[in-house]
Amino acid sequence: MKHRRKVIASIGCLLLATLIGYPKLFNTKTISSESQCFEPKTIEVIVQERPGSDSLPILQSVGGILVAETPIINGFVAKVPADSLIKLGQQEGVLRYAVSHPLSMTGDFGKKMKIGEGNQFKRPERLDNDYREIVEADAVREKGKGVTIAVLDSGVGSDSFSKASLNVVRSIAINPKAATPDDLYGHGTHVAGIINGKGSKAVTGIAPEAKIINVKLGDDQGNLTEKDLLLGLQWVYDFKDDYNIKVVNLSVSSDVAGSYIDSPLSAAVEQLWLSGVTVVAAAGNDLTNPSNIDYAPANDPFIITVGAVDGKGQEKAKESELAAWSKHGLTAQGVLKPEVTAPGVDIISLLSEQNATLAIEHPEAVINKNYFEMSGTSMAAPMVSGTIALMLEANPSLTPNEIKSIVLGTVVPYKNITDTAGVIDAKKAVEIAKDAKKFAQLPKYNNTWPLSSYMVDSGSTIDWAKLGWGNLDWAKLGWGNLDWAKLGWGTYWDSLAE
Predict the structure, then answer these.
(1) Cis omega before residue 124 (within 30°)?
(2) I want to staple 93 with a disulfide (CB 3.0 to 4.6 A). Which of 53, 411, 424, 436 is the partner?
């Protein structure tokens, strides 16, 4: 009974998770009146099980507590005693595991990453933006109508001004420590406004008629771990068909470098990508070492990673310059990131509320009470997400690989560019999305990179038709590691032959 009590999760934690809208993540078999919300000297881990294994006996053997099941990687998230990590890895049912950073190995919580950490702030000169002109969004008739974008961030404001300015159709809080799915921090509302904001032209988003799903990841102070992001991606995967989610915006990043091959976050974004959801991630900000690019999920070769340029007030992509802090370079596997750039300097967008944490910490960045100015790749990513919504309104049948082909094939080189990650061009992208002949002439995105190890052995079924697998270089994908019996993909050959 001693070990069984340890694997029981807290009733209080479960009730809170239920109240904020996502009981499905939590396993009801773990309820016990003797449980606690937090046991000291434990570490949050992300575990991938061997097919046919069960989380409960695994955790019983190491005195762990189940937090949530994560079928997107055929695994689960748990809290495990710090001195039981080696034993966890030795369990027959465990294929692999990763620590959910940032957590210290002593079992105490270390410095947590904040959503949007590293963004730049300054006093706005006036309520004005030039990003729509730079990306040519003003030249496009489409407004994102009929397209749903999931924004995984610090939440979205629920004040009357934010509600009137955004088209939020669902809100969910992932972390049970969050008292509300509302944005009390201030980052997520700013990101959502860049995609979907309505109002004067100065603050109109790229896709003002798109629908927004607000997936709040961390706590109310903007703190989060990799576990929160994984559970947010799991939620999107579970409900993508219910809400017709076609795009995911990730203006968040792990704060621990590592190979995408070894990252469960990479497996989750790849799973979404292969199931027809286009994933967009911010490259990250680092003024002292901008080439330090190897952080999940931005380092994953499947998804679209976005860097930031400074328009310099010229309203022309070709006159823009790369922001000094915008991460760019090669990952350890040789993946060139980011693939595209967008304006990310001195961007004015919605403020969730006047008492938001960022507004209190940076009062100089508040303008007209309802708006806020920030700089960062966090601001550039939603411009690409919004542009993709315009493309999908123009052509709803586009797959993620086709979208990436068009976006990469229509970028505009900025001043002194040294790689191929030019500035997105909404006008050209939508034009090609509508024209099959022009698309046929465009170079196709050709992914020659292997999947994350968590993806290859996940036991998940991949819909190769949605992947657009005819463009893949099979010789380089390393399929020798696949257990074809586990993939269950034989059913898709039947559908492809019809």
Answers:
(1) no
(2) 53
